[in-house]
Amino acid sequence: CKNCKKITYRNDLITSNFICSCGYHFDLPISLRQKHLYDADFITINAPNVDEDPLSFSTDTYSYRSKIKKYQQISKQDTALSVTSGLISGLRAVVVIFNPTFGAGRFGIRECAHFLEACAYACKEKSEIFLTVLQSSGMDVQAGTLSLMSMPKSIIGMSQLEEAGIIRIGCAARGATGGSLGSFFQLNDFILIESQTTEDILFSGRRVTQNIYKNN
After folding, report:
1. Residues 18 and 190: beta-carbon distance below 8 Å
2. 138-167, pLDDT tens digit by residue?
3. Which helix (H) or strand (E) holds 210?
4. Rg (CA), the chain
5. CA angle, corner 150, sides to 117 and 50, nearest 5?
6. Which of 183, 200, 206, 207 could form a disulfide with 151 if both were Cys (CB 3.0 to 4.6 A apart)?
């Protein structure tokens, strides 16, 4: 455990919903979170086919596309988002969960397209709840300004949900930093902090923030 340093068997963590005896919350597996959220079965909303590397960012020793493929292999997801829809307490819901194993829950070009797909689906299907579980390190920097454009785009998506009368709920389950926090997450009707051990809820990352204060 990051908090008390106690070693707990994984089976015991599963039984306790990944909460240590000291109260520290480990990352809850997405499949388990979905199981707890939905009344029964749910459907998956896939990401649109968008080029995640339009700048072809690479060097002699580094390939951005290879890095994304590595994230996909680790997380078993196409993007850092898992988007699903089903009934929660009898209400039609769309749930967007950030996966921290996919580049620390980055929000890049394709993640934004996936998020907008979720917003469009919620409006089309007349959903009643739009829930975002944020575990994000912020905007993906390697796509440059094209990635930063995801901030206003995601705000437009949230505005469309508001116009459709859909209740928007945001839950900070781990880290909530950078452009993810500074854009769409602030526009939720309700913002929840999952536990007292949730950390890094700030616009810039911990390292950047520490450097700023150290220099001042």
Report:
1. no
2. 888 777 788 889 999 999 999 999 999 999
3. helix 206-215
4. 18
5. 55
6. 183
Residue 110, amino acid: R
With beta carbons less than 8 A apart as the criterion, state whether 176 and 136 touch: yes
pTM: 0.87
CB 155 within 8 A of CB 115: no
Helix, strand, coil shares of the chain as percentages rounded to 5?
Answer: 40, 25, 40
DSSP state of 3: T
Q: How far is CA 42 from CA 39, 79, 95, 169, in A?
A: 9, 19, 10, 19
- Residue 64 in contact with residue 142, Cβ under 8 Å? yes
pLDDT in tens, 159-211: 999 999 999 999 988 777 777 888 898 899 999 988 877 766 666 556 655 65
Q: For residue 142, what is the enclosing H or E element?
A: none
